[in-house]
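Sample 3 of the quickstart, ligand iron/sulfur cluster:
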Amino acid sequence: MKRKLHTYASDALVVEYDAARCIHAAECVKGLPTVFDPNARPWIQPSAAAADEVARVVERCPTGALQYRRTDGGAPEAAPATNTVRLAADGPVYLSGRIRLTLPDGDVVEDTRMALCRCGRSNNKPFCDNAHEGAGFVDGGVVVDNQLRPAEADEGGVVEISLAANGPILIRGLVEIQATDGTSRSGARGALCRCGQSANKPFCDGAHTRAGFEAE
Ligand code: SF4
Ligand code: FES
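Result:
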């Protein structure tokens, strides 16, 4: 996992920006252009709006590239009540909720927002780095056959995400998968394709072995 961390402070909060996780065209720029202006230097000016407004827009960053810390006693970000896995057409999976991601080296990332690669081509795995665009990754982001297992009594709250070696994204904990056609499916425990080769996307069908997928 790469990090390119920059911080921008006002009297009320510190905005952290990890350029290695920024892929999205502009939730921040559209949401608050006086603060997030790619043509200005620095490009983030947190003093240019009320802290609550800055925090609200940071929380809309779907990749987690933007984070904030209140230094004025304001409330920290609250995780959404439901853990969701939103499929992007021809792109990544966006996770939202109480997420605990264990990386192959044992490091743990706890976050409320992440975009994970499912085309197999990111140079910043497991995060998406927009390589799907150059790779011509094609997947409509619909779910034909829900392969998530039903939740058991102790599954809820935090969703644990881990990565099979040269294989799928493993989910343990209750999630709602949101497809691009507006439908959703719930369940806990499942394996999502991250090599881009499964014939049953978004789920893994073992194609990574046949494809010789190398994640690390
Ligand atoms: S909303 Fe997040 S991912 Fe999108 S452009 Fe802004 S920082 Fe990057
Ligand atoms: S899905 Fe975006 S780089 Fe793989």
